[in-house]
Amino acid sequence: MAGRKLSDVARDAIDARSRLTVNRWEVMEGDVQRRIFELSTLLKTSREPEVNRHIVVSVIAALQTYVRGTVISLCDLGSDYRTRAAGLIPEKFSLKDALEWTGGSGATFGELVAHTASCSSITDIFHWLDGLLGRSLARALHGIISPYDQRNKVPGASPVIPDVNAAIATISRAFELRNILAHEAAATLRIRRSACLEIVNAVRDFIFGVDAVLWATAYAHLPLTQFEMNVHAGEELGRARRDLEAALQDARDISPAETRRWLMANQAEWQRVLDDWHDHTYRTLDGTIWPAVGAAELTKVVRSRRDQIAAWVLAINPETTLPKAVPDKFLDWLSDEGEDETNSPDVLPDSGASPTWKP
Fold first, then answer.
1. pLDDT per position as a tens digit, 235-275
2. Whose CA is closest to 352, among 212, 214, 199, 192?
3. Burial (Cβ within 10 Å: 0-12, 13-18, ≥19) of residue 342
4. How many domains would you assign to the chain?
5. What is the pLDDT of residues 39-79, one digit of tens each?
6. Whole-prediction pTM value?
7. How many Cα atoms occupy the beta-carbon half-sphere of 83 within 13 Å?
8. Are residues 70 and 164 in the same domain?
9. Which structural domain range is residue 250 located in?
10. Which distant-in-sequence residues (6+ apart) come within 8 Å of 103 by Cβ?
11. 280: alpha, beta or left, given left = phi > 0 and alpha = psi -120 to 50?
């Protein structure tokens, strides 16, 4: 890794994002859970020895995707996490590289961090997540219960990971096995189906456990259910629209009649194009996640339009005081209000006792 340019890291990060179902890290966990489900199903239906080798490599790849996505998510939470992340970066980049990145790289700070982070062992995973969370993840995993049980204060709730030490040991061995299978022919190495099942279940439980720790710590202020995410995304969009309307009113107040007429016609045409785009993209997709994703995209566009108009108002009237911009990230998410989704959890084949909640 020594000697890499920041531009190379950025390109790797952008390429990795492009291979998600949608070009957004918010869908990462859905992709990971789908991959683990597919591997579990394959394990249940196939008796081919070569499939077992494939499953070991693929489930570790899914875990690596989850860890990188989690690093990105934590870096996006705020400056405290970015400061911790910066202290963990093992590579040194030139000032020239840094200036080129700030000048327009398509990769975010979190993506750059995640793609400099080594993720070749369970030790690497704990190093990065411990450092970002500021606590021992291994200790936090012991006895952690699901986010739903945390919220509802369920008495005697079962821990997400029945045996944390066993799960960690299994994943550690799986990394070693994956490194052999990924880099050697190892033609005589045959993996038992029961070993694959143990590895898949350990990785799945570990991901659920890390999720539960995150919802008890870093994500404690965020909405938990998809319903809450949709509601909050709609509220963020409403706030952005109100900010835009305030900027438009400022523009109308300082404009002559002819400019006001043009401004309103221009705004109506802008709104028509935006609605047409949204109606033929996100509104055509099935699934509970898309209302939140679509609303988040609309919010970004509306805020950009508000900034455009506010900058124009300031240019013609420098004494204008601009209203404070609404933060891009969902920092004011619902925590206790709204309706919870309480559908029965999905259970993966051979999944043991661990629940699956929808991201």
1. 788 889 889 988 998 898 888 999 989 999 999 999 999 98
2. 199
3. exposed
4. 2
5. 988 988 888 889 999 999 999 999 999 999 999 999 988 88
6. 0.64
7. 4
8. yes
9. 226-316
10. none
11. alpha
